[in-house]
Write a structure and sequence with these properties.
Strand content of chain A: under 5%
Number of helices of chain A: 5
Distance between the termini of chain A: 55 Å
Number of helices of chain B: 4
Structural class of chain B: mainly alpha
Order of helices and strands of chain B: HEHHEEH
Oligomer: heterodimer
Strand content of chain B: 5-15%
Shape of chain B: globular
Helix content of chain A: over 70%
Radius of gyration of chain A: 26 Å
Shape of chain A: elongated
Order of helices and strands of chain A: HHHHH
Helix content of chain B: 40-55%
Strand order of the largest sheet of chain B: 1-3-2
Chain lengths: 166, 123
């Protein structure tokens, strides 16, 4: 194998590792096209400028990666916060916020008593029934939070499509 | 499930990367590397997008329904099955047109203030 091809192969392998720094949501969908595009860039640069071209590609890629990583994580963070905001608004519209909050508070109290009892932090004696209820409440809250996170749709327009927010 | 916003103007102003990707796809479907080289050529090398910027933008543009993956493939002898082709959606075309009008209006104002001169007026 010619040394230039070997250099590109190694570069692709290193770039693939570099991609692990991106959020999983981008990697899952676009890892292969990104590696392919990087390989195209490398081959193009090598054909035009040889080894110097390859070094120039890496300098460009590192700059691009640093910039796009910040943007991707900023968008990821915004999308998580947005999910919670939309879930909260939905609960208010449906009138289920108060019962859900009450359920959450009761469950938290149950978990607190349960954990406290196990760690001997509280002196409350717990029967097996109380332990079971506490566990069931904790499970109910966990399942509810998970379903909320999955079902609530993300914001239709990603903020970074627009140059400015607001 | 994502949905399109009501009006193209809701998305303006676009980021340079998003606007240039829309422009690159305005005349034909292209794959990632072809989009990148088209943008570089159209801007005289001033805007160069790497894989992170390009595919990050593509991901968000698909979510916003500005572009979509195209199932039309080039002739078999020119096709690389690993490549994904992208095309404008009708909504994406409207957004590109709205942004073009916005930029043209801005340029007209700048010209009326004597801030720009036509290229042929140089020298």
């Amino acid at each position: 194998m010619p040394s230039a091809d070997r250099a590109i192969e190694i570069s692709e392998r290193v770039f693939r590792r570099l991609l692990r720094a991106y959020p999983p949501s981008l990697r899952a969908e676009y890892e292969e096209p990104m590696v392919q595009l990087f390989g195209d860039l490398c081959r193009d640069a090598r054909n035009r400028r040889g080894g110097v071209g390859l070094i120039a590609v890496w300098a460009f890629i590192l700059r691009d990666t640093a910039g796009s990583l910040i943007l991707e994580y900023a968008n990821d963070g915004r999308s998580v916060m947005d999910k919670f905001r939309r879930a909260f608004a939905l609960k208010i519209r449906q009138g289920t916020l108060a019962p859900n909050l009450a359920q959450g508070l009761l469950s938290s109290a149950a978990v607190f008593v349960l954990v406290g009892s196990v760690l001997k932090l509280t002196s409350l004696p717990l029967t097996e029934g109380q332990l079971l209820i506490g566990l069931l409440c904790a499970c109910a809250v966990s399942i509810q939070l998970t379903i909320l996170g999955i079902l609530v749709t993300p914001r239709p327009v990603a903020p970074s499509i627009r140059r400015f927010e607001g | 499930m994502s949905r399109s916003p009501k009006a193209p103007d809701d998305l303006l102003p676009l980021t340079p990367a998003v606007f240039h990707i829309l422009l690159a796809l305005a005349d034909r479907d292209r794959h990632g590397y072809a989009i990148m080289t088209e943008v570089e050529s159209a801007t005289g090398g001033r805007l160069r997008m790497g894989p992170g910027t390009l595919y990050g933008s593509i991901k968000r543009m698909i979510a916003a329904k500005l572009i979509e993956e195209s199932d039309v493939r080039p002739a078999e002898d020119q096709d690389d099955e690993r490549r994904r082709y992208y095309r404008l959606t009708p909504f994406g075309r409207k957004v590109a047109a709205a942004e073009s009008r916005r930029v043209a209006d801005l340029a007209a104002v700048a010209r009326s203030k004597g801030l720009t001169r036509p290229a042929f007026g140089k020298g």
